[in-house]
Amino acid sequence: MNIGVDYYPEHWDESRWPVDAKLMREAGITFVRLAEFSWCKLEPTEGNYDFSWLDRALAVLHKEGIKSVLGTPTATPPAWLHERYPEIYPADAKKYRLGFGTRLQRCLNNEDMRRYSRLITETMAKHYAKNPAVAGWQTDNEFEGNLCYCETCAAKFREWLREKYGSLEALNEAWGTIFWSQEYSGWSQIPLPWEVKCGKSHNPSLQLDYRRFASESTVSFQHEQVEILRANAPEQFITHNMMGLHDSVDYFELGKDLDFVSWDNYPAGFWIQGEPTRSDLAHDVIRGIKGRNFWVMEEQSGITGWETMSRRPVPGQIRLWSWQAIAQGADLVQYFRWRSCLFGTEQYWHGILNHDGVPRRRYREIKGFSEELASLSAELDGSSPENSVAILNSYEQNWAFQIQPQAKGLLWWDQVRRYHDALGRAGVGTDVVPMGADLSKYRLVILPGWYLLRERDAEKLGAYVKAGGVLVVSARTGVKNELNTCRTEPLPGPIADLAGVEVDDYDPLGDATCPVTLADGTSLSASVWADALVPKGAETVASYAGGCFPGEAAVTRNETGKGSCWYFGTAGDAAFYDSLLSRVLEDSSIEPYRGLPPNVAAKYRVRNGATWLFLLNLGSAEASVPVHKGAKHLLGPEAEGDTVRLPAYGVAIYRI
Amino acid sequence: MNIGVDYYPEHWDESRWPVDAKLMREAGITFVRLAEFSWCKLEPTEGNYDFSWLDRALAVLHKEGIKSVLGTPTATPPAWLHERYPEIYPADAKKYRLGFGTRLQRCLNNEDMRRYSRLITETMAKHYAKNPAVAGWQTDNEFEGNLCYCETCAAKFREWLREKYGSLEALNEAWGTIFWSQEYSGWSQIPLPWEVKCGKSHNPSLQLDYRRFASESTVSFQHEQVEILRANAPEQFITHNMMGLHDSVDYFELGKDLDFVSWDNYPAGFWIQGEPTRSDLAHDVIRGIKGRNFWVMEEQSGITGWETMSRRPVPGQIRLWSWQAIAQGADLVQYFRWRSCLFGTEQYWHGILNHDGVPRRRYREIKGFSEELASLSAELDGSSPENSVAILNSYEQNWAFQIQPQAKGLLWWDQVRRYHDALGRAGVGTDVVPMGADLSKYRLVILPGWYLLRERDAEKLGAYVKAGGVLVVSARTGVKNELNTCRTEPLPGPIADLAGVEVDDYDPLGDATCPVTLADGTSLSASVWADALVPKGAETVASYAGGCFPGEAAVTRNETGKGSCWYFGTAGDAAFYDSLLSRVLEDSSIEPYRGLPPNVAAKYRVRNGATWLFLLNLGSAEASVPVHKGAKHLLGPEAEGDTVRLPAYGVAIYRI
Amino acid sequence: MNIGVDYYPEHWDESRWPVDAKLMREAGITFVRLAEFSWCKLEPTEGNYDFSWLDRALAVLHKEGIKSVLGTPTATPPAWLHERYPEIYPADAKKYRLGFGTRLQRCLNNEDMRRYSRLITETMAKHYAKNPAVAGWQTDNEFEGNLCYCETCAAKFREWLREKYGSLEALNEAWGTIFWSQEYSGWSQIPLPWEVKCGKSHNPSLQLDYRRFASESTVSFQHEQVEILRANAPEQFITHNMMGLHDSVDYFELGKDLDFVSWDNYPAGFWIQGEPTRSDLAHDVIRGIKGRNFWVMEEQSGITGWETMSRRPVPGQIRLWSWQAIAQGADLVQYFRWRSCLFGTEQYWHGILNHDGVPRRRYREIKGFSEELASLSAELDGSSPENSVAILNSYEQNWAFQIQPQAKGLLWWDQVRRYHDALGRAGVGTDVVPMGADLSKYRLVILPGWYLLRERDAEKLGAYVKAGGVLVVSARTGVKNELNTCRTEPLPGPIADLAGVEVDDYDPLGDATCPVTLADGTSLSASVWADALVPKGAETVASYAGGCFPGEAAVTRNETGKGSCWYFGTAGDAAFYDSLLSRVLEDSSIEPYRGLPPNVAAKYRVRNGATWLFLLNLGSAEASVPVHKGAKHLLGPEAEGDTVRLPAYGVAIYRI
Fold first, then answer.
1. Model pLDDT for residues C327-382, shown as the tens digit of each residue
2. Nearest partner of B570 among B520, B533, B521, judged by Cα
């Protein structure tokens, strides 16, 4: 359990470094990440490397007991490289070249980009492999899918397709290019999804393959760096700073090459103000990438923003977010950044210190958290979250819904969040795992609309249910095969038997609502989508009461083997999920956290039978939370009787 | 009276064709349209034609008694053609080439595009001229004006201008290029309306000529196909599927080459949800193109949408829309499409069947309609709507208002709809005809803002009124001449004498409102535009009561010869038009349908003195409609006394 | 004191000219501006000049006693020039060339553009230098900063940078290009702020230098014309028609070369409807450019708009706006334009006459104003506004806030207007002057957020206060240096001692609000921005009462020498400013106009001790205004007792 900070010695006069290092140590900081945007200083002109400044910075920090994570600096190639190889610049969907001046101005498929990236990575790895101040590596920075539209990408995409489909005949058949007379008679005829007469409405199969190709381009770019680092610096770890719910690259694939994953958490960043449960989901998503604990490589340390700023984090929020990260499986929280930059695009992405370098309120808050964490480190070290519910996650499904959103509210994270939020309100911890995960350890598995359903996955889920699991299947599951073309069986396709239903009709509700009733008379409100279900063995749990399909089944439950499969033919508001999931949890023999008030999260870490409970008040009002009498108080307000009063943004920790 | 379906045999395994054909026959389908997007299958590589699959498909269908309409497949040129002639791709207003991947990716002025289009058309025509399964042809698909900005278009536009104006001096004079120093001293200096420093605010005369040129480019492209079809397949009819209120090509000109016109009707398509009167207007507009009955070539048969879907048609709506089409002059209703496509951009543009190919609710609804239609076909065959009110329609006016919208609410269809909706609410059938139509058969003619007014048209309208007609002239009439430059006479220009008024001032109201009162004290609310009128012989019907021109005349009536000319110097809400048009109808001796409730349309077809009344409940609530006692009930709920209760989306038909 | 009109003889048949000239004279018009868009008629083909038509037009006008201002016609280069030198066309941020068809289609850095501009200017100057009908010159038309992205601009920008910084090392250091690895190792690597991967989020220092460069490009373009005019037509004045609150070119710099400045005033133009105080501010801004009286070169004379029109000016508004201009320092009001153009983009930018050329309502209103003005001309000639309050204005600050808006409501004119409007409501006249102005004549100086604060300016302000002045400093002052990089001192940087405060934290409120209380218990509402202030000698005037910084200081006052410095750490609504500024005015011994009702402006002109009071009712309701008993009534309604009742849009003038 450590805290760290992202530090840019190259932004400051060398005389300031010892001052900073001392202030860091005094705040309890033991890790820094450096160098990920410093290529032009490490290699000021082609082939002339200068690592001396970084050597000195590492030494200054190490002297204060601080270890370093080095970023390979490939997210911002230097100007001299672009001048020599202008085709490194990526192109947009109208073929305009996005040039120099910000960052990420590189196509990861460009061979010159790759060659120079390998060179700087290898040179750095050799130089720092034995440096005791260096703990490990971060590849590049915040990788995205290589959504570039340059001719190099076009050529490589065609190669990739030839590899995948073997022949044009097979590709034409797979994509259904007969639609709108698009059959290709030569590989060179295949376009990228450039802007066309009808916007961007290319063939959906082409679009999905392009998204896969763009993701794989990034994964293979990282793979080259990982191979070099493993070969040259075998004793140092390798991680990458992901972006939570970002989705342009398949994080499961990107994570495979890493020792552990990290992510960058901006809970009140300027584009996501007021969504306290977004980071909650993101922590679980990131923990699910490798199914183990992770680092927060960048944690919000103040106001964020480029040209326009977010609101200031309220006092206590930074501490709260830090404990939230720990509670959900972080083993290190590293703040971005040490001191607010004086120049460049991110002048107002505030660090722990303001531009004036004076320790003020946020420094004191983080120092306080650091002391709290240190006091519990021995207690918590080696623990991690363990849950009996899993939501299945897939980047390919995510892309398919982006390509065809179908109805408002069906986007992948919209679907996942409705379930995850409801489980959070019930105080039930949730893993977010890939289809390939071992499901046998879960009592409940939730399948958001698994749009592209392979037969083998349907079979796997069937086996899970038969063995006693409870499965929730959502509308829009099984609509398509993995080619992004529609299936010809009645919906929900290969999972219809397991669910025991047939979809006879459907209505894309979007924002419209439709009343639904349960057998006990409970009235709920459905929206987003409505399947009209014909039970084929399943029992009807909820029916439409007026609106789109009066009297027809909306939610069903089908027993199979030792388990059961629920089919949610529609979606709804919080009350809809709270009501239905309480029945599903009961069916799964999972106990919710009774009496948990709104905006309070209950999270658990476990180690060898010991369990720690974290109560996190994400809201701006005081909350009273029931606590088990035998719980041992470790941090935060003490319980009065069986209730603890958590102040706004308050945290309490118990061992139970 | 027939029903049909749009069918894509090339999208399905050949073994399915007989199944589909049988299901079609059982639903009463006797027509299909095919092949309009199949160029790549008809000519897989240059010059290698393969019609065998289409021959077989036609035979399978014909065996079930189904006749075919063949589309010339030029809306989606194949990839091999574009690869050889990349200049076929059209350019946008920033000269970006819109390439391969959707449809309409062709410039109709490109000579290679034209040559290959003639070739495929001629080859098909020769092959199918004597095939008894082929009833006729559809040219291309949903033609639009060739709003392309490529250099070929620029060159042809300059030729077109040289042809029109003779000399640069004449063009400079006509357009007023002296404004902003734009006089051309060489033809090659004339631009297309490419994006410029001030957005797209080119000289309005240039813009209008470009719109005319773009429309004529499309008309002449079709003309080449029509000539080939007439020469090679003289016994088969030729039509084209227009798009209702679409306006980028002059449908009057496009229609001249056709035997009859067709159109594609999506009343609840995803971009026009909840506008039940839009199809009502569109049917009348389309019938007015050639002044006779028409086909619906594509009628909505389910949920529509590409990436995002519309709501599902409510049960009963497809039947209602089908009867609405018949009531307003359709002789065939053909559904788009048979079965929802498994692949490509239009996967969610639903056919009668879902992707699974199982006949479900919509199949049954359409089959039911087909049986109803069959039962009345002998009764209705040969009948058509006949009306005593005409609204004048013009694509050139439409373009001029697009180029200069002037005030919110003045766009052409906005203006037309306000009158058309009010006449619909009064149960008065309306034709929508060109200025060149024979007006003598109408008792009332309505002129929306006829912005570009030619003297000869003003004279024609004068003669109409003098002979006893009633004419309604709207604000913004006579502002300009046909060059899209302003007239120098006081407004309303050449029609001022006929209207007996002079416009002394005006105020572009847009959404703002202004109270208006009639002589009898009725208070109304004006908006959109306000002319301050000085009567020069006309009587004042309505005056502004406060607001922009307190006490000044807003609506006038001027008797001339045996008729009268009303001038509407302002526009307003439904109550405004209902109140004023009731007086205009009285002046025209036209009887409204008294007691017609909101959202119920009353339409008539006539043949040799016999009249059929169609009552269509476009609303979602039951409605009580008065019916003449002597009316003979043919379909739908029977009247109780002199009233019939129409359920939501219900239809009733009577002979009167 | 004169009135004039903008006239385009080239748009009308020569036979109409005498009719127009006579109507002008009858309306009291004594000036016209001509020729600024007539290059293609003055030089129809390269080198072939034809001034004969303009000579005749000047003569016709001069015969009626009308003098002319000639525009150099360089805002609309002719088509032949572009055809020969297509690189004159400017490029947008994606390098698309903005071509022919509207206006301003020229890059002012292009050498061919400059050469031909010099030539036409020199030829005109020589031809008209001695023409008695010509009073002076207008350079070009409505200059904007040359925000062009062409390669010529890129090359010249690099030269400009080399001149400014001397070396790449210095530039890299100044801009902080080490951020995101952007250090340049060659001048040719420096981009313009073209669109890049992250939108337009280039380095803020690069962006600011580009804005400076773009402004200087325009200033130097004008300078070439001014030099030629001075050399060849030394007896004629030179002015330019600025655009009020436009800000892409530094008007202080542009104004330096001119004899006096002019501006174009469209108070109810289509993009600014309903902002009566906007012109009020703009008049003061323009008068501040050279610190002396000015001309209105274009005054709204009717409905404006290109494709869409504004509402009509209400009767009385044109007269009101004309008197408003005079009251705030205009010596001539010239209406745009004489007669509405029949063709071209500005057909609906209405002149005094409509398209029909018949004098109607607006002609009569302007004629009436002209007679009123003539009756008071002897009285008012030579007078001008003199004020004891100054708001400091800066184009460089303005650009910096555009580059980084930071929080909603911080844009430069937003900040200036909040103060200016409040002073206007208090009836206190205000100058708007540059930092270089002589401040000693002001009792109160207001500094909006002076984001980029130079030490020498901080010192100047300190000296002003010490000498007895009252200074108001706003939040975000002193954040940066002139390089647009952040300062390292605690905020407010170099002015902290003068203000006697330190900013310990801040919160970008934007639209959010925060309660504030004054010592006397007054409750106010803050928004936009909140600084948490630690007084270092200053007294606390207002504190936050809950919200972001409960109990901390929000507004302070610090006495220094004979004066005082107020620091406004937050902004707010009208009540906020009215309440606080009343205290500041008292501190400055400035008497407000007590009892001035909302929407009524009180303005003063002064000459040799005599003072004229203008009361302007900018609102649409009658208002009662207290008037000093001794005031001598000159125009408008007479006072009853000590109160005058001003009708809507009414004007009253008194000598006091």
1. 999 999 999 999 999 999 999 999 999 999 999 999 999 999 999 999 999 999 99
2. B533
Q: Pick A548 or C290 by higher pLDDT.
A: C290
Residue A270, pLDDT > 70, answer: no
ipTM of the complex: 0.97
Q: What is the pLDDT of residues A534-566, one digit of tens each?
A: 999 999 999 999 889 999 999 999 999 999 999
> Which among C306, C342, C348 has the least Cβ separation from residue B488?
C342
Looking at the DSSP bridge assignments, the partners of residue A40 are none
Which residues have C-beta within 8 Å of that of residue B159, sequence separation ≥ 6? Answer: none
The full DSSP string for A166-216 is SSHHHHHHHHTTTGGG---SSGGGPPPS--BTTBT---HHHHHHHHHHHHH
Mark which residues 315-344 of B lie under 8 Å from A by CB: 340-344
pLDDT at A13 over 90: yes
Q: Domain B2-87+107-145+236-380 is classified in which CATH homologous superfamily?
A: Glycosidases (3.20.20.80)
- Is C298 an active-site residue? yes
Identify the active-site residue in B298, B299, B365, B372: B298
Domain(s) labelled CATH 2.60.40.1180 in chain C stretch across: 600-655
B600-655 placed in CATH 2.60.40.1180: yes
Tell me which architecture the domain covering A2-85+107-145+235-380 has in CATH: Alpha-Beta Barrel (3.20)
Which residue intervals of chain A bear CATH 3.20.20.80?
Answer: 2-85+107-145+235-380
Query: Can you say how many angstroms the Cα of residue C486 is from the centroid of all Cα atoms in its chain?
Result: 28
Residue B535: asked if its preceding bond is cis (omega within 30°), the reply is no
| pLDDT digit string, tens, across residues B148-168 | 999 999 999 999 999 999 999
Chain B hits for C99, CB-CB cut-off 8 Å, are 191, 194, 196
CB within 8 Å of chain B, chain C residues 37-56: 37-41, 44-45
Tell me where in chain B the CATH 3.20.20.80 domain(s) lie.
2-87+107-145+236-380
Predicted TM-score of the model (pTM): 0.97
Residue B95 to residues B92, B98, B102, B157, B204: CA-CA distances in angstroms?
A: 5, 9, 19, 16, 21
pLDDT, tens digit (0-9, with 9 covering 90-100), for B172-195:
999 999 999 999 999 999 999 999
Nearest CA in chain B to C36: B180
Domain(s) labelled CATH 3.40.50.880 in chain C stretch across 389-587
pLDDT one-digit tens code per residue, C550-598: 999 999 999 999 999 999 999 999 999 999 999 999 999 999 999 999 9
Which tens digits make up the pLDDT trace of A172-230? Answer: 999 999 999 999 999 999 999 999 998 889 999 999 999 999 999 999 999 999 999 99
Average pLDDT, chain C: 97
Beta bridge partners, C2, equal C332
Q: Which residue type does C256 have?
A: K
Summary count for chain B: helices (H), strands (E): 17, 25
Statement: A389-587 belongs to CATH 3.40.50.880: yes
Neighboring chains of B (3 or more beta-carbon pairs < 8 A):
A, C
Task: Give the strand order in the sheet containing B241-242.
Answer: B237-239, B134-138, B67-71, B29-34, B2-6, B330-336, B294-300, B262-265, B241-242
DSSP C488: S
CA A530/CA B312 separation, integer angstroms: 10
Nearest by CB to C11, which of B178, B183, B509?
Answer: B178
Confidence grade of residue C270 (pLDDT, cut at 50, 70, 90): low
Q: How far apart are CA B207 and CA B177, in angstroms?
A: 13
Does the distance separating the beta carbons of C103 and B180 come in below 8 Å? Answer: yes
Chain C residues lying within 8 Å of B177, measured CB to CB? 40, 344
Q: Which CATH superfamily is domain C2-145+234-380 in?
A: Glycosidases (3.20.20.80)
